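re the bet — no i am not wrong, look at it urself. input seq straight from the record:
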Amino acid sequence: MTVHEINHPLVKHKIGLLRVKDILVKDFRAIVAEIGVLLTYEATRDLGVRNVCINTWAGQTEVQKISNQNISVVPILRAGLGMLDGVLQMLPGAGVSVVGFARNEETLKAESYYEKLVADIKDKTVIVIDPMLATGGTLDATLDLLKQAGCANIKGIFLVAAPEGIARIEQKHPDVDIYVGAIDTHLNDQGYILPGLGDAGDKIFGTL
C-alpha cells in the first residue's frame, strides 16, 4: 500500500480553513468539494488513456482520452457525500456506488446499513471517498465489501487521516492506495482524529 499525503500548497491551505472552529456550514461544504477536486487530480495520475481521432477547426488530430465509464466513485454515507460533487467535477461520467456504515460510538466498530453498487463494479477502477480516515474500521468494512464484489483496483481519497487508521488499512488491505490531504497526530479516546476537523458529517449536513 502506498500512502500519498498531498503536500500541495492549495490543499494545505484549504485543510487549514476547514479546521477553524466556528466555520459556517456553507463554507465547510464548499471547501470540502474544492479539496475533493484537488485530491481527485492527484489520485487519477495513473489512469489509462487511449488515442482517439477528433475533428478540430484545423482538421483532424489525435488526442488522448480516459474512460469515465470505467470508474466508480464510492462515497461512504453520510459524510462521503460531501466530497462527491468535487470528485464528479473531475470525473463527470463516473458511476456512483453508495455504501453506508455507521460507527458504533461504544465499540467503535462499523455497522452496515446500506449498499448499492453499480453493475460490473468488479471491472472498474473504484475510488472510495470519505472525509475522515480515523480508526479505519469503516474503510476496512467497505474494502471487504468491495472485494467480495470482485473489485481488484481500489483507491481511497480522504481529507484527513490518523496514523492508527492508516496502519490498520496497511495491514489488512496492502493493495489499496490512499490519497489524503493531511495525516494528523493521533486518535483520542473516543476515536476522533486530533487535531482533525471535528465531526465532518455534522458540519457538512448542518446537524451540529
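see?? Residues 25-43 form the longest helix (19 residues). told u. also The chain has a mean pLDDT of 92. so pay up
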